[in-house]
Amino acid sequence: MRHQLSNHNLRSASVIENLTDYDRVQPINVSEVEIKKALEDADIPALLCALAMLTGDEALLSEDLRPPTPPMSSTISPQGGMSAEAQRKARTLALKKIIAYRDAGCPEPRVASTEDLDQIMKFLIKDSNEDYLPILRHELGIPKDTGAPDWHKSDLAPHTEFRVAVIGAGVSGIAAAHRLQQAGVEFVIYEKNKEVGGVWWENAYPGCRLDTPNFAYSLSFAQKQDWPQQFSRQPEIQKYLSGVADATHIRSFIQFETEVVSMVYDDATARWSVTTRNASGEVTVQTFNAIITAVGQLNRPSFPTIEGRESFKGQSVHSAIWPQDLDLKGKRVAVVGTGASAYQIVPSIVDEVAELKVFQRNPPWMLPTPTYHHDIKPGMTWLLQHVPYYGRWFRFWQFWIASEGRLPLVEVESDWVHPVSVGRANETLRQECVAHLNTQFGDRPDLLAKVVPNYAPGGKRMLRDNGVWAKTLKQSHVSLITDPIDHMSETGIQTSDAQLHEVDVIVYATGFKTSDYLYPMKVMGRHGKDLHAWWQGDCRAYIGITIPGFPNLFMTGGPNTGVVVNGSAIFSAECAVEYAMRAIGHLLKNQHAAMDCKEEPFLKYNEVIDAGNLTKAWGVVKTTSWYKNSAGRASQTWPFNLLAYWSLTANLNVEDYEYL
Ligand code: NAP
């Protein structure tokens, strides 16, 4: 079915109203004592900013209240490192301001100017590079959503037919659809699942939750203040994404349970033919002017190649395709892998299984995060729900802390010689993480010997640990097996020491086919260029978004866009979506049918990326990980800070494209 958009519903205010529901605060009608109690749980730096915006009082941003924000180590300093005295003073001031706001009847917040907002931001970012301000305004989203297209099709090219296929209705697909809708561009979303959410819909294994702070891991245009945790569980994130799909009214444009099989570019018409197959096997072909792929990176489950894997007669499941009726009670269970998924599954199933065998090839580095499973404290939740725009400032603060994140800690230093770490800061991080492991496993030297990684921290994805991993592995019915898997048999897993581990269920927590971008779709570009044949397993793109020979094909979550120690994947996805929108606006404005990335900028860009990745731990360690492809190149990771990606995508470099 072809969905038509009318300019009427595109411009209707209801879309905006629903999205701002996420910002709506409730009036304050509680006593001073209760407000004071709530303030004990407050994140103070962000609260000072919200109150400064609300009241215009610069005293809230005085030098003695400014958080020193020490550099990130294995942990993050609470309250930006503010002294106890500064915290006390800030709480006293905040109490006065909130009471005054209450007593004035909780009026609508004043409209702060960009200059005012920049001033408030500078309170947190101090004398950092002013180049940061546009990206920070974008993430703050006040007074307006700066990621919204600054054009509308009805103004640029009212009579030009232009249809876009969005592939995937996860985080990126929802963002793409929302932006297309804002710009009045006709689109269809193809989603292979029966619901929105992508990876968050699919990964419903026990214990699945975020490991990136939630306020920053959310769409810039759909903020909410009532996250129950800083690292929310999968159902909460799925509920959020489903809510955003509703609030943006994009659902009716989604063709669910419809998988894109192929996309073929036609040189004569400069259009893409997209072939889809729905749940009943019905094949349909539709044509589009452009395609935005939003299929995610951690999407297609990867099963390991292990001899005899198919011969196992018990039940085999993958973490990302978890049967919701799987009953592990009283079963002997093997979990293969010790990455982020296993780390969440193993502690969640340990109490129900009879026996648990965890097969580890390489141990992960773990960042001590004692609050990982904590609920957001009640006072903080109350403040988020009652102080206007506090949620926005809290998100801003989270974003700012993570924008460089642990990048300096994974930096390779050429003059550093060490068997494990790659630089001085990396060595400090290593020692902190080893100390954490010593604390966790000190009473079990047998386990300690197995869990200390022999590769540099940051060489692969670091996990968050609140102690549950050690607690789980120490249980008497759990074993951590580090002898390599030799083969599998009908009854279990045989390791290289000739021991057969008999189990009833094998859980593959073995990750995803991350380097096979756009797999398994067939993608044919100009003059019959076959994308996967051309890539030959070494996927590359220009700024992770466009590829020479594939006009008007825009990728989100494309090659080398994965931020792994700073920020969240949503950030780079939104950058890509906004870049694609700029490109589409440019095509419409100039009446070009299509634009194709030139070879030279593509090659130059990839040289810079490859060199950048070699300056980071993951680029030089010899360990396997989803960051690298089979050729050993780091084809997934973004090696620089967030500002660098923002700067590359914030403008369309028109001269880097050939127009058709
Ligand atoms: P992963 O990080 O790729 O881990 C796969 C695990 O399987 C590794 O321990 C790997 O060992 C092991 N493995 C693979 N093939 C094997 C084989 N043939 N024999 C033995 N072991 C094998 O996958 P994941 O845990 O699903 O996580 C992927 C990414 O998804 C994460 O890094 C993260 O970015 C994201 N994720 C996030 C969350 C969250 O937000 N909380 C949760 C889950 C996943 P080696 O290390 O030796 O290769």
Features:
660 residues; alpha/beta; FAD/NAD(P)-binding domain; 3 domains; five-stranded parallel beta sheet; 22 helices; 21 strands; binds NADP nicotinamide-adenine-dinucleotide phosphate
Structure description:
The protein has 660 residues and is of the alpha/beta class. The chain has three domains: 19-127 and 377-404, no CATH class; 153-300 and 514-598 and 626-659, FAD/NAD(P)-binding domain; 309-365 and 418-508, FAD/NAD(P)-binding domain (3-Layer(bba) Sandwich). Helix content is 35%, strand content 14%. It is built from 22 helices and 21 strands. A five-stranded parallel sheet has the order 3-2-1-7-19, covered by helices on one side. The protein has a five-stranded parallel sheet with strand order 8-17-9-10-13, with no helix packed on it. A four-stranded mixed sheet has the order 6-5-4-18, with no helix packed on it. Strand 4 and strand 5 form a beta hairpin. Helix 3 packs antiparallel against helix 5, helix 4 (44-55) crosses helix 14 and helix 19 packs parallel to helix 22. The longest helix has 22 residues, at 569-590. The radius of gyration is 25 Å and the shape is globular. 48% of the residues are buried. The model is unreliable at 1-17 (pLDDT under 50). The protein binds NADP nicotinamide-adenine-dinucleotide phosphate (NAP).
